[in-house]
Design brief:
Radius of gyration: 23 Å
Shape: globular
Oligomer: single chain
Distance between the termini: 55 Å
Largest sheet: 7 strands, mixed
CATH topology of the largest domain: FAD/NAD(P)-binding domain
Number of domains: 3
Number of strands: 23
Number of helices: 15
CATH superfamily of the largest domain: FAD/NAD(P)-binding domain
Low-confidence stretches: none
Mean pLDDT: 97
CATH architecture of the largest domain: 3-Layer(bba) Sandwich
Length: 441
């Protein structure tokens, strides 16, 4: 056996790393983590945690809006204080995550890692060797390739705005576009969303997405669909977004056209690791074509959603693999996803579209008819439950103010395909959103 510095060396410190690296090191493996930026990667520092902190006041204003007359007075969002609070929420996370790693003797190696060979990563001029190496470098924001692209900003820039521009133009039709359009609009900005196609949130059930768009339009968000953006220009202190049907003058441009795997400048070609523009290619053990090099998280080219829960599951799977607990292939469960608009839209398992193709049974519920949703006067809300031919719940899609919690509540029934007797054994707290969700199965 070669005498390596580490049993496992991770490149990147996000959820694709630390959720598995910490318990792996606690079990006695020698672990190193290379990180050039903030410990924890995108999600804690410039993604999920920051976004949900900025969104919390939006959710509150929506609730008070519905309960006007019961709750008196109009609320407005102080953007500067909102951003300050967001920073207070997230600023301690890198040290917290780093502290957890150090507590189990993980070496945190600051710097940019580049493969020298299949067992060696250079950090600066210093080689670090390992029996197994995990690439967990995540993704970065895509930039639209047009003249003036440098005038646009990315999602991290938006979440770090200390003053909210009066007029914001967003390019894109995905999660980031819809979530930040919701937040900026609720905080008082005039928002224009420009999309390349006709639809937004294309991977979600479109009748529910249409309700999200209709609500945003009613609040003043303008959508320009089927528009090919051609350039960005500076116009004094403002900017011009040019597209094939005209132009939009704006104070600030958000490029929300997607995210790109971080596969460049880490020496993949030097060691012969296969990758594409979609990410690193792996087998069903998260192993690259180089036997001792693995990948985890959003950097992988995969069919599963590139979300934090997926990265956590992959990181935990690799922990069990390296610890010798299993030699089995990774077996992904149903992974839920949610868009944090107001209302939310969330889904898990078999989609409505797939159900119709496969002859599965669907059941629709209009949630404002439910007594529990009437407590907070929810006026937008629907879900569709999908059952297989053995009448197991295998999928759910929901639009509502509490869609993320409702879908979470249904996960055990979907993942484990509970039969009627098992469903009866689940006794939920009442009255709660979980009880409401289970009562609809």
């Amino acid at each position: 056996m070669a005498n390596y510095d580490y049993d496992v060396l991770y490149i990147g410190s996000g959820h694709g790393t630390f959720d598995g690296a910490i318990p792996l090191a606690a079990r006695g493996k020698k672990v190193g983590v290379i990180e050039s930026g903030l410990i924890g990667g995108t999600c804690p520092n410039r993604g999920c945690n920051a976004k949900i902190a900025l969104d919390a006041p939006v959710k509150l204003t929506r609730l008070t809006e519905k309960l006007q007359g019961i709750v008196n007075g109009d609320l407005s969002i102080n953007w500067t204080e909102n951003e300050k609070h967001k920073q207070e929420v997230i600023e301690g996370l890198p040290d917290m995550i780093g502290g957890l790693m150090k507590s189990v003797n993980i070496d945190i190696i600051k710097g940019h890692g580049t493969f020298q060979d299949d067992h060696t990563v250079l950090v600066g001029d210093e080689p670090k060797t390992a029996e197994n190496i995990v690439i967990s470098t995540g993704q970065h924001p895509h930039r639209v390739d047009i003249p003036g692209t440098e005038l646009a900003h990315d999602s991290a820039d938006f979440m770090n705005l200390t003053d909210l521009p009066a007029n914001i133009t967003i390019i894109g039709a995905g999660y980031i576009s819809m979530e930040f359009a919701t937040i900026a609009n609720a905080a008082g900005a005039k928002v224009t969303v420009i999309t390349h196609g006709e639809k937004v949130l294309r991977k979600f059930y479109q009748p529910y997405v249409d309700q999200i768009v209709a609500d945003l339009k009613s609040r003043g968000v303008e959508f320009i669909n089927n528009a090919k953006v051609s350039s960005f220009e500076k116009d004094g202190s403002d900017f011009i977004v040019n597209y094939d049907g005209g132009q939009v003058k704006t104070n600030w441009i958000l490029d929300a056209t997607g995210r790109v795997p971080n596969v460049d400048d880490i020496g993949l070609d030097k060691v012969g690791v296969d990758y594409s523009e979609k990410g690193i290619k792996v087998n069903d053990h998260l192993q690259t074509n180089v036997d001792n090099i693995y990948a985890s998280g959003d950097v992988i080219d995969k069919d599963q959603p590139k979300l934090t829960p997926t990265a956590i599951f992959e990181s935990t799977y690799l922990m069990h693999t390296f610890a010798g607990d299993t030699t089995d292939a990774i077996d992904y469960p149903e992974i839920p996803s949610v868009v944090f608009t107001s209302p939310r839209i969330a889904k898990v398992g078999v989609s409505v579209e797939e159900a119709k193709k496969d002859g599965f049974t669907t059941k629709e519920n209009h949630l404002p008819d439910d007594w529990y949703r009437q407590v907070t006067k929810e006026d937008i809300g629907d879900n569709t439950l999908v059952y297989d031919k053995q009448n197991h719940l295998v999928g759910a899609t929901e639009i509502s103010d509490q869609a993320e919690d409702a879908i979470n509540a249904l996960l055990p029934a979907i993942v484990f395909k509970f039969d009627p007797a098992q469903l009866e054994r689940i006794v939920t707290l009442f009255p709660t959103i979980a009880a409401d969700a289970w009562g609809q199965i």
